[in-house]
Design goal:
Strand content: over 45%
Distance between the termini: 32 Å
Structural class: mainly beta
Order of helices and strands: EEEEEEHEEEEEE
Largest sheet: 7 strands, mixed
Shape: globular
Number of helices: 1
Helix content: under 10%
Length: about 160
């Protein structure tokens, strides 16, 4: 039997997407507006080809959204994963309820040579909020009213 795959999967609040299976491929994954980690990838040997995400519009404030860190990842690969690869990943913020909110990073992953990301971007839509880093602590801030993406060609 072939590998499990998802084609044009879409999840919007209140649900998040959690992948627990091994060798799962996702093609065209859209997950939006969930107020915690939006995708959690726990399976080994996973692949995602194209991921689009928009952070929730409505956290009322930084402290109300999360007190122990600055926001949540759009796409998080679990610390236990040793093999994963993703291409064409984007996360956007538009914190209309409080434009001063900072999300620490769009993507979170263990640093491992077999966990690879290609062609990532983050963007602040109209300067309503900031995404401080593209992935982990790598990549500059997406901020400002010019809606200019911050690109990262690959990680690590």
């Amino acid at each position: 039997m072939g590998r499990p795959s998802g084609d044009r999967l879409t999840r919007t609040r209140p649900a998040r997407t959690v992948v627990n299976g091994d060798s799962v491929s996702a093609y065209g994954l859209f997950v939006e507006h969930y107020q915690k980690d939006e995708v959690i990838w726990n399976g080994q040997n996973g692949r995602t080809i194209f991921f689009q995400n928009e952070k929730p519009y409505d956290p009322p404030s930084q402290s109300a959204w999360r007190t122990d860190a600055r926001g949540y990842a759009a796409y998080k690969v679990a610390d236990t994963v040793t093999s994963h690869e993703a291409w064409g990943m984007g996360s956007y913020c538009n914190f209309t309820a409080d434009p001063s909110i900072v999300n620490e990073h769009g993507f979170e992953t263990p640093v491992n040579p077999n966990v690879k990301f290609h062609d990532l971007l983050t963007v602040s839509l109209g300067g309503k909020g900031t995404i401080a880093h593209v992935i982990n602590s790598t990549g500059g801030p997406a901020q400002g009213t010019d809606t200019v993406p911050v690109y990262l060609v690959s990680f690590p």
